Amino acid sequence: MLRQGQVQSDLTSLPTHGLPPRMIKRLYDWTMGWANHPGALWVLAIVAFVESSIFPIPPDVLMIPMILAAPHRAWLIAGVALIASVLGGLLGYAIGMLAFDTIGQPILAALGKADAMEAFNTRFNDFGFWAVLTAGVTPFPYKVITIMSGWTGMPLATFMATSVLARGLRFFIVAGLLWKFGAPIRDFIERRLGLMFTLFVVILVGGFLAVGAL
């Protein structure tokens, strides 16, 4: 059972993507309500799938209590989240490629990301691998990158390979930390892990740029 303070902490750590806080809270409560349900694994798959294109609540919100309740299923839970998230990324890619004006643009507008999209379009595929990796492991909305990848015509093989790497890193690191340390690591995951992932990507990119400059 989650304490009220803990729930409030979880909510304040979530990105709102420009959506009303009341809506975010309702979606969060709905997602958390499935954590102890016998069909939680199926709900996790659905959440991870739709989060890659339209849903604002990340699957981590459901993964964390599921793994804490059944640590022996940590790798299964992370694997389900990975597969569903990558498949959902394909939906986001298809939306960007086939229905950007009718579906993709309204989604990006709802997330507060529409204004920068046009200027970013000409440079997006130059980042390719790094754009998808960054969105896949950091708090930046992954759905923005999946839609933009299809819109700008990023090679599907690059998008898929990087999505598997990025989402795998994120979900399996979360699962490994919870499996190893249990509930005491939860606060770190919710409040600090996103920053750690961001620093990791920055250092990685800086390292490649430094090597390229030699």
Number of helices: 12
Overall spatial form: globular
In N-to-C order, the SSE pattern is HHHHHHHHHHHH
Number of DSSP strands? 0
Assembly state: single chain
Extract low-pLDDT stretches: 1-13
Q: Mean pLDDT, as a whole number?
A: 77
Helix-strand category: mainly alpha
Distance between the termini: 54 Å
Largest sheet: none
Could you estimate the helical fraction of the residues in percent? Answer: over 70%
Total individual domains: 1
What's the Cα radius of gyration? 17 Å
Strand percent estimate: under 5%
Give the helices and strands, then pairings.
Blueprint: H1 4-12, H2 21-32, H3 40-51, H4 60-69, H5 74-98, H6 100-110, H7 117-127, H8 129-137, H9 142-151, H10 156-181, H11 186-191, H12 193-213
Helix pairs in contact: 3-5, 4-5, 4-10, 5-6, 5-9, 5-10, 8-9, 8-10, 8-12
Molecular structure report:
- This protein is an all-alpha fold and 214 residues long.
- The chain has one domain.
- It is built from twelve helices and no strands.
What is this structure, in a nutshell?
This protein has one domain (15-213). Helices cover 76% and strands 0% of the residues. The protein is built from twelve helices and no strands.
Relevant terms:
mainly alpha; 214 residues; disordered N terminus; single chain
